[in-house]
Design brief:
The structure holds 2 protein chains of 2 kinds. Chain A is mainly alpha-helical. Chain A is 80% helix and 0% strand. Chain A contains 6 helices and no strands. Chain A has helices at 6-36, 43-56, 58-83, 87-109, 122-144, 147-151. Chain A has one domain. By secondary structure, chain B is mainly beta. Among the domains of chain B are: 42-135; 143-283, 6 Propeller (Neuraminidase), CATH 2.120.10. Helices cover 5% and strands 40% of the residues of chain B. Chain B has helices at 2-16, 94-97, and strands spanning 26-34, 37-42, 48-52, 56-60, 85-90, 99-107, 112-122, 125-134, 149-152, 156-160, 180-185, 206-209, 214-220, 225-230, 237-241, 278-280, 286-291, 304-308, 313-320, 323-330, 338-343, 349-353, 358-364. A 4-stranded antiparallel sheet of chain B has the order 1-23-22-21, with no helix packed on it. In chain B, strands 5-6-7-8 form a 4-stranded antiparallel sheet. A 4-stranded antiparallel sheet of chain B has the order 9-10-11-12, with no helix packed on it. In chain B, strand 7 and strand 8 (125-134) form a beta hairpin. Chain B is globular. The chains are: A mainly alpha, B mainly beta. The A-B interface holds A 23, 26-27, 30-31, 33-34, 36-37, 39, 41, 45, 48-49, 52-53, 56-61, 111-117, 120 and B 81-82, 140-143, 165-166, 168-169, 172, 251-252, 257-267, 270.
C-alpha cells in the first residue's frame, strides 16, 4: 500500500467502524429502555432488531459520522504532529469529542429535542462517544501503520 | 386476523377510495393571514373563534370579516416549535354561560407542559379566566403537547396530551400525564368514575395511557364511541377507539420507526395493549378530526374526516356501521398542510391551513341546492 491512499483507507475504515458499532450500541440502549418497561426481549428479537438498525439507522448515522470524521481526523493528525506522539489516544479523543459536537449541532437544529434516542441519557451519550473513539483509534492504527516496513 | 385486517386496510385504504363516489365541492377562503391557525370554534350567531399557535385568539365576525385586534385576556403562552396556543372549545352551555376552554403550552423552554384554562368570553375579551389543569411533570423541549379536547355527554371533557418526545417511556407511567388522555369535570375536578381514581400510584385524571401525541378527538354520540388519532414517529400514525383505563402501547408497540430509521420497538402488538383501528404507514401526520353530521354533503354523513399535515390533504374515513371500510384523499389540490377540519353548523366543512399565513377555508357544495 502506498502512503497516498493510507489516510483514505483509514478514514473509510474509521467511518465504518464507528457507524456499525454505534448502531449496535444504540439498539441495545433502546431495547434496554423497553426491558425496563417490562418487555421480554428474546435473543432472536435482539438480533433481528440489531440487524434492522444496521440497515435502517446507519444511513443517517453514517452520514453524520462521515462528516464528523472529515473534520476530527485531520485535526487530530495536526495535534499528533505537534505533540510528536500519542496518535492513538488523540484520534480516539478527537472522534469522541467530534461526535459530541455533532450531536449538539444536530439536536440544536432539529425540531425534536434529541434526534438519537440512545443519547437522551448521559450513559447513552458516553457509550456512543466510546464507539466513535474506537473509530478514531482505528483510524490512527491504519493511518500511522508502516505498511512498507511491516511487509518488508 | 383482525390485525391483518387493520394492516390490509392501511395498505389498501387509498385504493379503496377509487371505488368511493366522488363528491363535488367548492372551496371558499373565509379568512387569511392567520399565523399557524390551530383550532376553530363556532359561536352562536355565526361568528367563529380561531386560535393562532403564536398565542392569539381571533374572532371571525358573523359577516366573515376577521377582526383585526385579537381577543384580549388569553393566558401567557409558551410559543416555539410545536408549542403555542392550541384548542379553543365552547362550553356545552356556552350560549348561557359564555364559557370557553383554551389549551396551550405553558412554562418556559426549560420547563413546560400543557395547560387548560377556562374563561368567559365577554365580547372583546376573556374574563374570569382560571387554569383548570396543568399536566405534570414539566419537561424540556418544544415537542408533543397534544392539546385537542372534546366534551362528553356526561358533562366531562377529555384532553389529549403528548409524550414530550424525549420522554416516550413515560407514556407507560401512570404516575404522570405524559402520553395520555385525561378526563376532567367541566370545572377541572376529577370525575369519581375515572378509571385510575382508586390507584394510589396513578394520576386520577388519566383516562387512557400509552399515547405518543394525540392530535384529534371525536365523540360519536350515535355509537357512544370516543375516537382519537395520534402521531406515530416515522409511520405508525394511529386511529384508536378509546376504552377507559386501556393502554395503547406507545412506545412498546408501534408500526413506526424512529426518525433516524432505528426501531423504537420490535413489537407491533403485544398482549395487554390495544391495537389501533387503523394505522397510517408511511405517516400522514394527522392533525384534526371531525365526524361529519351536516346536511350539505349527504354522502359524507357518518364519515370521519382527518386533516393531515405531511400528507397535505384530508382523509375521509368511510364508515359503515361504525367500521372503517375505506379512505378517500380530499383537497389534495390545495397542496397545503391542513391543521384542522371541522363540521360547521351550516353543514359546510371548515379547514385550517398550517402556515405563517394560514387560511380558514369553507367547503360547500358547488352550487346552492
Amino acid at each position: 500500500m502506498t502512503n497516498r491512499w493510507q489516510p483514505l483507507v483509514a478514514y473509510v475504515a474509521a467511518v465504518l467502524d464507528a457507524t456499525l458499532l454505534g448502531s449496535i450500541v444504540q439498539t441495545q440502549f433502546n431495547l434496554a429502555a423497553l426491558s425496563a418497561l417490562g418487555a421480554e426481549i428474546s435473543f432472536t428479537t435482539r438480533l433481528a432488531t440489531t440487524g434492522h438498525d444496521l440497515l435502517g439507522f446507519t444511513p443517517l448515522y453514517g452520514s453524520l459520522i462521515a462528516i464528523m470524521m472529515l473534520g476530527a481526523m485531520p485535526a487530530a493528525s495536526v495535534v499528533t504532529r505537534w505533540l510528536g506522539s500519542g496518535a492513538w489516544l488523540i484520534h480516539a479523543l478527537a472522534a469522541a469529542l467530534g461526535l459530541w459536537v455533532t450531536l449538539w449541532i444536530v439536536d440544536t437544529l432539529a425540531p425534536m429535542p434529541t434526534l438519537i434516542a440512545a443519547t437522551r441519557s448521559l450513559e447513552g451519550t458516553l457509550a456512543m462517544m466510546a464507539t466513535a473513539a474506537l473509530g478514531g483509534w482505528g483510524y490512527a492504527i491504519l493511518a500511522y501503520f508502516d505498511w512498507d516496513g511491516a511487509s518488508g | 386476523m383482525r390485525r391483518f385486517g387493520h394492516i390490509l386496510l392501511a395498505a389498501t385504504g387509498l385504493s379503496v377510495c377509487a371505488m368511493a363516489l366522488a363528491v363535488d365541492y367548492r372551496v371558499e377562503t373565509l379568512a387569511e393571514g392567520l399565523e399557524h391557525p390551530w383550532s376553530l370554534a363556532f359561536l352562536p350567531g355565526d361568528g367563529m373563534l380561531v386560535t393562532e399557535r403564536a398565542g392569539r385568539l381571533r374572532l371571525i365576525e358573523a359577516d366573515g370579516a376577521l377582526r383585526e385586534a385579537p381577543i384580549a385576556g388569553v393566558p401567557e403562552v409558551f410559543v416555539g416549535g410545536q408549542a403555542g396556543l392550541f384548542e379553543v372549545a365552547l362550553a356545552p352551555d356556552h350560549a348561557d354561560s359564555g364559557l370557553v376552554y383554551l389549551s396551550y403550552a405553558c412554562g418556559t423552554l426549560a420547563a413546560n407542559t400543557t395547560c387548560l384554562d377556562r374563561a368567559r368570553l365577554d365580547g372583546q375579551r376573556l374574563v374570569e379566566r382560571e387554569t383548570l389543569f396543568r399536566a405534570v411533570p414539566d419537561k424540556q423541549g418544544r415537542s408533543h403537547y397534544g392539546g385537542r379536547l372534546t366534551f362528553l355527554p356526561d358533562d366531562t371533557l377529555v384532553l389529549g396530551l403528548g409524550d414530550g418526545f424525549d420522554y416516550r417511556e413515560q407514556a407507560q407511567n401512570p404516575a404522570n400525564h405524559l402520553g395520555s388522555l385525561v378526563r376532567l369535570n367541566l370545572d377541572g375536578s376529577v370525575p369519581d368514575d375515572n378509571p385510575f381514581v382508586d390507584d394510589s400510584e396513578a394520576r386520577a385524571e388519566l383516562y387512557s395511557i400509552g399515547h405518543r401525541n394525540i392530535q384529534g378527538i371525536v365523540f360519536d354520540t350515535t355509537r357512544s364511541e370516543l375516537l382519537i388519532h395520534e402521531h406515530g414517529p416515522r409511520g405508525g400514525d394511529e386511529l384508536n377507539r378509546i376504552i377507559p383505563g386501556a393502554n395503547y402501547g406507545w412506545p412498546l408497540v408501534t408500526h413506526g420507526v424512529d426518525y433516524t430509521g432505528a426501531r423504537v420497538t420490535p413489537f407491533t402488538e403485544l398482549p395487554g395493549f390495544e391495537s389501533p383501528l387503523l394505522h397510517w404507514t408511511p405517516s400522514i401526520a394527522p392533525s384534526g378530526m371531525t365526524l361529519y353530521d351536516g346536511k350539505a354533503f349527504p354522502e359524507w354523513r357518518g364519515d370521519l374526516f382527518v386533516s393531515a399535515l405531511v400528507a397535505r390533504q384530508v382523509h375521509r374515513l368511510i364508515r359503515e356501521d361504525g367500521e372503517i371500510v375505506g379512505q378517500e384523499a380530499l383537497f389534495t389540490e390545495l397542496g397545503e398542510r391542513i391543521r384542522d377540519v371541522r363540521t360547521g353548523p351550516d353543514g359546510a366543512l371548515y379547514l385550517l391551513t398550517d402556515s405563517a399565513k394560514g387560511r380558514v377555508l369553507r367547503v360547500v357544495p358547488p352550487s346552492p341546492p
